[in-house]
Amino acid sequence: MRLPLIRLARYNGQGTLGKRAGMSWFKREDHEIVNDSRKTVRTEGLWIRCPDCGKILFKAELEANLQVCPHCGHHFRIDARTRIENLLEPGYELVDLGLRSTDPLNFTDLKPYKKRLAEAQRKTGLNDAIINAVGQLGPHNVVLSVMEYSFIGGSMGAVVGETIARAVDRALETRRPLIIVAASGGARMMEGIASLMQLAKVSAGLARMDDAKIPYISVMTDPTTGGVTASFAMLGDLNIAEPNALIGFAGPRVIEQTIRQKLPEGFQRSEFLLEHGFLDAIVHRKDMKQYLAQALTWMTDQPQETVSESDIQTA
Ligand SMILES: [Zn+2]
User: Is the pTM of this model over 0.85?
Assistant: First the structure.
């Protein structure tokens, strides 16, 4: 009996057994269980995990499926260039890419706004969070404006506002329908009032399109929030969205804290908004092009296939 006790005592660095009185015989090493997120398997490169169903997806397969999970239909975010490529026929033209923010407030938060801009420009190869394109969508000549979420959260500063204003001008000049695909965290706070003024500028432009009876379709993708929802995203002749996109003005946490109530399940998602009359339709990414083409045919009253006069007479 004694031998193991002595061993234990020595093991614990205790000189004599006597000193152990009142102390526990077994000492637990201080190994806390560490929940290290870095321990999760990295699937960089070829594979990606679907955040919705958890299945591991082959990236090439996901890309071939327009970045939609083939198992559960989760719509991954896609960049502006890919989206334009998916929607327009080959031969489209990217325009209005030259504008750059001047950092009017010389703003610094965690880092200087100028530095943020430079980083985003390097990462995306764009000057700001939007691309305008002119081209053909099905049988229709359109002006398409697509936001780039990976450029400072797709936030709307003076450049995004001005670029949309130019898309509106192009649509008015050429009488082409306008489609804007939104992906945005809202107004760009680093530009303060200059960013908020874009809400009014863009809304006024869209009102002119309304007077000229030129269609405007708003496509909301995940996420569409803040000043973008409060202006052009909700001003479409048709307001449509991709499935399960986050769409709202203020974030759910801010609303919960303000009204001191728990928000319902699925609040601020496309399906909830459709049910409550804020959206006209939810359109799966694979159907988006076809849907837009059909909607424009209906809105512009242009038959998809031209019917000759002799056909009408014999009919
Ligand atoms: Zn999935």
Answer: no
